[in-house]
Write a structure and sequence with these properties.
Layout (H helix, E strand, L loop, with lengths): L7 H30 L5 H31 L5 H34 L1
Length: 113
Amino acid sequence: MVNASLNWASLVGLLLVLYAVVAAPSSIAQIIFLLGRRADRTPGLIVATGLRVIQAVGRFLALPLCGGILFFQGWRLDPILQVCLFLLAMGLIFESVPGILTDCQHWQKRRQT
């Protein structure tokens, strides 16, 4: 049975899916810039690239999956838990937006040079 209603959890689900659409290409750009910047393959660069790949998988798979679950099954949650998930999602977005914006600024600087 699929039941979707407009509540806190469904709004958070839609917000997470929309944020994943914005954040996923940013993670791909981070990986490209990290590998394209240097010609050497030091262990530090390999570890940093591995962490960015894990982050990209999370943005491609985890955010839309969590958003879909919240959208379709959020009506089952207690209202206080729905508000808690809303605050958690807002914290996630507000903590990661500055990183995405600085990545965009670095990308524009690299395109100009």
